[in-house]
């Protein structure tokens, strides 16, 4: 599976400007790299303009979702659609859409864990369902959003259900870049899956975002990594069957002793 990651510098508070950026990038990337799947960052339509998020949020995804569907159908590419500010019944959720090559919405996830350091709980509503498995091109996958990465308890069930790739869409700050890199490697090793992340670059409202989008294989090896500051594209071909090979060589899941674990773990 060939994956292209857009480590994007988002235009704060300008959904239409960001639509144009993404559209131009997808057209160019499809021509150059012919990816099977593309990945966008968290809140790519608005960035973290939280004080004005009710103004910039997309009502029920009526603009963002059709935009991504058109790209998917036009270029016959699967899309992990980052996330966007999605206003539903007066509340704004941080929503990650997944679109297949036919332009069908195969999955949507609302970010469960809201970041206290960025005052997210003041402006956003948290999702009420943990991430679930979805499939693209017959590959089992999961997607989480930024701060979710710190919560292994929502990721482990995806691995136990057969997820081969975990996508992380983010606006992760440069100040905690060491956590960003090391937790991804840990999640890949402990769940024996590929971890693919897409972070943004640039700064807004005193927060500098750290780039460093990554692809980590099930052994915990970093296959590709973006820079900290530059807007760029990361393109890589991964062999998803490596997850099965690693799980056979180190049979972590069959070695679990569930009856000794505390309930819910």
Automatic annotation (TrEMBL):
<protein>
    <submittedName>
        <fullName>Putative amidohydrolase</fullName>
    </submittedName>
</protein>
<comment type="similarity">
    <text>Belongs to the carbon-nitrogen hydrolase superfamily. NIT1/NIT2 family.</text>
</comment>
<dbReference type="InterPro" id="IPR003010">
    <property type="entry name" value="C-N_Hydrolase"/>
</dbReference>
<dbReference type="Pfam" id="PF00795">
    <property type="entry name" value="CN_hydrolase"/>
</dbReference>
<feature type="domain" description="CN hydrolase">
    <location>
        <begin position="1"/>
        <end position="240"/>
    </location>
</feature>
<dbReference type="GO" id="GO:0016787">
    <property type="term" value="F:hydrolase activity"/>
</dbReference>
<keyword id="KW-0378">Hydrolase</keyword>
<dbReference type="InterPro" id="IPR036526">
    <property type="entry name" value="C-N_Hydrolase_sf"/>
</dbReference>
């Amino acid at each position: 599976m060939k994956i292209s990651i857009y480590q994007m510098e988002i235009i704060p508070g300008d959904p239409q400007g960001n639509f144009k950026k993404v559209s131009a990038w997808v057209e160019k990337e499809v021509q150059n790299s012919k990816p099977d799947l593309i990945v966008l960052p968290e809140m790519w339509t608005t960035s973290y303009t939280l004080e004005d998020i009710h103004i910039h949020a997309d009502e029920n995804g009526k603009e963002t979702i059709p935009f991504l569907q058109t790209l998917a159908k036009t270029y016959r590419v699967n899309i992990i659609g980052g996330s966007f500010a999605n206003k539903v019944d007066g509340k704004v959720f941080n929503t990650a859409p997944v679109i297949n090559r036919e332009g069908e919405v195969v999955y949507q996830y609302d970010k469960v864990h809201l970041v206290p350091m960025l005052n997210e709980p003041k402006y956003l509503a948290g999702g009420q369902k943990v991430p679930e498995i979805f499939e693209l091109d017959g590959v089992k996958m999961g997607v989480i959003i930024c701060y979710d990465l710190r919560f292994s308890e929502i990721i482990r069930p995806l691995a136990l259900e057969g997820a081969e790739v975990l996508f992380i869409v983010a606006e992760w700050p440069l100040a905690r870049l060491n956590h960003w890199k090391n937790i991804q490697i840990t999640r890949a090793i402990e769940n024996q899956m590929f971890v693919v992340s897409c972070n943004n670059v640039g700064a807004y409202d005193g927060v500098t975002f750290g780039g460093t989008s990554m692809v980590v294989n099930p052994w915990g090896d970093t296959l590709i990594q973006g820079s900290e500051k530059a807007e760029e594209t990361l393109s890589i071909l991964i062999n998803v069957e490596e997850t099965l090979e690693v799980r056979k060589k180190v049979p972590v899941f069959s070695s679990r002793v569930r009856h000794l674990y505390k309930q819910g773990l």
